[in-house]
Design brief:
Length: 365
């Protein structure tokens, strides 16, 4: 019996070894790019690591023109040094020109439909030709796929952008009470840079962007305050000079009141912010002018959020999710507009009130 058991174990181990796949026989796409030419032709880019010690380039970039991602993969196989696999994709980069012209979901269908593909890949809108990013040489940085993810992770932590993967995008697109958003990137002085947040309508088309400076206020409205929301404000009203004070919102609450009056939705946003002073360039004793400073901070938050909400309404997008409150508190009226929430949201009356409290000046006076 022992001999039979040993024989079976040996067969199992041998069969496992026989199924091994050498890394240098695979082309693992880590970053996938999609763009469009001026005449509407679809361009597909793939960036894959090269596992060959004799190779001069350690990243293989392939570009093909195609009508779909599936067809594009077959074409990539014609040029790739190994069998193409898509289960390790970390980033999907969409050119802004393409995102403006075509809805994204049909383009990305195979990534959702084929279980071999990854839906945790980050979705990114690139402001410029995608080829520029895919073929860029980022000195003193890791591979392109890792460099992109690290950059987005760092800037998202600072609230300068958002992290949206394919699954997040799919969920937001099919949620009638909100509209999708994703990271927007570009290139500056041949270096990758995060530019802010790209906004999509309920059809999955790109319609507008908000800057990295405004991104924290989108996340404030979405009640995503942790770990902190930093921003800098002018103190001319406090000192009479063009000086700055930087603050960090460590705690806060956002409350929404929802009504339906006179044929439109009405929302009131109440923000209670607790902030600490993180930098004081202004020559002023803030302990003696705390109440005035709190009013300046509250006014800054109100101005930024109100301007942001006007931008959303102008483009008929709702990345905050006001539609979720409309559905929860005014369901009968929501039901009439759920399939065209962007238009109803654009006509809504929205007011914002802010109360700010300075809870710390930092560890020095």
């Amino acid at each position: 019996m022992k001999a039979v058991a040993l024989l079976l174990c040996g067969v199992l181990f041998l069969s496992g070894c026989g199924m091994n796949t050498r890394l240098d026989s695979l082309t693992m796409i880590l970053t996938l790019g999609l763009d469009a030419t001026d005449d509407g032709k679809l361009l597909m880019y793939s960036s894959s690591p090269v596992f060959n010690k004799d190779a001069k380039e350690h990243t293989e970039v392939i570009d093909v023109d195609t009508s779909s991602l599936r067809e594009g993969r077959y074409k990539v196989d014609l040029f790739a040094s190994g069998k193409t696999v898509g289960g390790k994709i970390q980033n999907v980069v969409i050119g802004k020109h393409l995102a403006e012209k075509r809805a994204l979901l049909p383009l990305l269908d195979v990534l959702y439909r084929d279980p071999k593909n990854s839906t945790t890949a980050l979705l990114i809108v690139y402001d410029g030709p995608v080829k520029e990013l895919m073929e860029s040489k980022q000195k003193d940085k890791p591979r392109l796929a890792v460099a992109i993810r690290d950059l987005i992770a760092t800037t998202a932590l600072d609230k300068q952008t958002v992290k949206t993967n394919l699954l997040d995008f799919h969920r937001m697109l099919f949620e009638k009470g909100c509209t999708p958003f994703a990271t927007e990137m570009g290139m500056k002085n041949r270096k990758m840079v995060v530019k802010g947040v790209a906004l999509f309508n309920n059809k999955g088309k790109y319609v507008a962007s908000i800057s990295a400076k405004d991104s924290p206020f989108l996340q404030l409205l979405r009640e995503e305050i942790k770990p902190a929301i930093p921003f800098t404000l002018r103190t001319a009203a406090l000192t009479g000079k063009k000086e700055n004070i930087s603050v960090s919102m460590e705690h806060g609450k956002v409350r929404y009141q929802t009504k339906y009056r006179n044929g439109r939705f009405q929302f009131h946003v109440q923000i209670n912010a607790e902030v600490i002073i993180t930098e004081k360039i202004a020559d002023v004793d803030i302990s003696k002018k705390q109440k005035q400073l709190e009013r300046i901070i509250a006014n800054e938050i109100k101005t930024k959020t109100t301007t942001l909400l006007q931008t959303f309404q102008r483009h008929h997008v709702d990345p905050v999710g006001f539609g979720l409150y409309a559905r929860a508190y005014e369901y009968s009226h929501w039901k009439n507009v759920e399939n065209n929430w962007g238009k109803a949201f654009a006509a809504a009356d929205i007011s914002v009130s802010v109360k700010a409290d300075v809870i710390s000046y930092g560890i020095i006076n």
